[in-house]
Amino acid sequence: MRIPLKTRTRRAAAATALGAVTVLLAAVPASAHVTVQPSSVAKDATDQTFAFRVPNEQQKADTVTVEIDFPTDHPIPSALVAPVPGWTDQIRTTKLATPIHTDDGDITDVVSQIVWTGGRIAPGHFQDFTVDFGALPGGTDAVVFKALQTYSDGSIVRWIEEPKAGQAEPEHPAPVLHLTAAVSGTVGQADPAGQSPAARSGSDATARGLGVAGIVVGIAGGLAGVVLGRRGRGTGGPAAAE
Q: N or C: which end of the chain has fewer CB within 10 A?
């Protein structure tokens, strides 16, 4: 039996719409890595508050310990940690072989590690651990942190591989904070609405997610329209005579 041209056209349109929805859904990341938010800031930024975002990528275990190791080659002199309900934090320091000379005196002890324990991140969830740096390090364009994520089943995921320019992303990349050219008075400060860089980063990510969701809903709506139109024409009207 020969299928009418309009029927074939409607079926092709429906298949195309369904395929587009599938592609868009596949493009949404199914998992994430431990990252620092925002991931870049100007070297002269005045807002030095960052969040280490830790997602749980396991299906049957909770994250119970988070360890962030700070670099000592480009050290961060001090840090303040925002409290996270249910978690206990500990800041560890190390003594530098060569002190950092500043206008306020020499700095001999710097942050080497921050550890959070006592809480839980359930599967399918993430937790932000917010830290205010005393100052951004100089002499570098990138600050590489190393993160260890311990699960309730005893397994440990080591986010310690440094991404290399021009190469594929490693399986367990370390969180990297990129330091961009200094732009006094513009980058790193709160915007007129009072948002910090971390807040703006979260807002941008939310906007992108809503945009993708809107496209998916629009295509799904178009597909539903095609199907409903096909059913309507099959029960009456001019198309029923085809």
A: N
